[in-house]
Write a structure and sequence with these properties.
380 residues; nine-stranded mixed β-sheet; two-stranded antiparallel sheet; alpha+beta
């Protein structure tokens, strides 16, 4: 049975942040130490990001014209504000619900699969919570059938789209008539804050908002469609790094810990993390053992958690600049959108001159430190 990802679609909110302008705002915050300003300058400058998207129009530095008091950023004073977690989560609920529905609708339209054929919905996010949740709203607003099965994967971090696709694949293998709508929405900018803490500054320089969706099914795609065969998945918890990437709920939003050690930990363990993907195919296993994985796999959908993470993966697996071009391009144009990001990279590869039968190795990283990976095939 061949299970494919069809109708892969990406959506971003309309407000664009220019990295240099955001850097200047954070560097100018009152109370920031001289060292903190230097770290801001370095982190933003070396991020590999030029633009990001956000649901927060205030961050464009234009004064509000609706008469309401600023919530996140006071353009008149240039000061970042400190709304509580409830305020941030209320904004998440308002904006995320629309992005879930928009991304889901785009995936259905692109796949040509009617709403009556969707048997399951899997929603993914680590940047907000509410109930009835996005899985319910997607089913209601897209007009899915009343008996559609719904699942939400929450608070898993940047790797969460991979378990969602794996779960969808397992559902389709268990039921050949299944069609699973998978949607990831992350509004990371709701949790950005001014700080002297180096880990917080690095996170502030990277994270952005975005959504991605697709339909996983074993039903044949339209003859002209380009889809991704979902061949195999693997997961690996590294023996170190549990405290180097963390995501906790604080009084003023969710607090991420992202230490400078993360790229080197990933670089050290990425080969072991992808070994299970290649073990079932002798040629791939031998290529990985010989340091020639880049020659055996044409495309690499590396989650661009930051420029240095892509650098470490490229070095460890001996990948060419062209092979890491799609993740670098997504990072440059969109930043790190947590779990949605790897699906943006897959979409970029699918839009490239990738040929029918080309293999893709995808990987994403998150708290634990966890590496989730998948082996895919371009079809069509």
């Amino acid at each position: 049975m061949t299970v494919t990802l069809q109708g892969l679609s990406t959506v971003v909110p309309p407000t664009v942040l220019v990295q240099e302008e955001v850097r200047d705002v954070f560097a100018a915050q009152p109370g920031l130490s001289r060292l903190g300003r230097r770290i801001v300058s370095t982190a933003f400058g070396e991020s590999g990001i030029e633009t990001r998207h956000t649901v927060l129009e205030e961050l464009t530095q234009r004064p509000r014209d609706d008469g309401e008091a600023p919530v996140f950023f006071d353009a008149a004073s240039g000061e970042l504000l400190h709304p509580g977690t409830r305020t941030r989560n209320d904004i998440y609920a308002a904006h995320a619900s629309r992005l879930y529905v928009d991304a889901g609708r785009a995936a259905l339209e692109a796949s040509g699969i009617g709403t009556e054929r969707i048997t399951h919905v899997i929603t993914v996010s680590c940047t907000g919570f509410y109930a009835p949740g996005p899985d319910f709203e997607v089913a209601r607003d897209l007009g899915l059938r009343a008996g559609v099965q719904r699942y939400h994967l929450g608070f898993m971090g940047c790797y969460a789209a991979m378990p969602a696709l794996r779960l969808a694949t397992q559902l389709c293998k268990a039921d050949p008539h299944a069609a699973v709508l998978v949607i990831s929405v992350e509004l990371c900018t709701l949790h950005l804050r001014a700080s002297d803490d180096p880990d917080t500054i690095v996170a502030t320089s990277l994270f952005a908002d975005g959504a991605a969706a697709g339909v996983v099914t074993s039903c044949p795609p339209p003859p002209t469609a380009r889809v991704l065969g979902l061949d195999r998945f693997a997961t690996r918890i590294t023996p170190e790094g549990e405290g180097d990437m963390a995501w906790r709920i604080g009084d003023h939003g969710f607090e991420i810990g992202l230490s400078p050690a993360v790229p080197s930990i990933i670089g050290e363990h990425v080969i072991g993390a992808v070994e299970p993907l290649f073990a079932h195919e002798h040629e791939l296993a031998r290529a990985l053992e010989d340091g020639a994985a880049g020659e055996a796999i044409a495309h690499w959908a590396v989650h661009p958690g930051g420029r240095s993470i892509v650098d470490r993966v490229q070095s460890a697996l001996h990948l060419s600049d062209e092979q890491v071009g799609p993740p670098r391009a997504v990072l440059r144009e969109y930043g790190n959108m947590s779990s949605a990001t790897v699906m943006f990279v897959l979409r970029r590869i699918l839009d490239s001159p990738a040929a029918d039968g080309d293999r893709i190795a995808a990987m994403a990283f998150g708290p634990g430190l966890t590496v989730e990976s998948a082996l895919l095939t371009v079809r069509g």
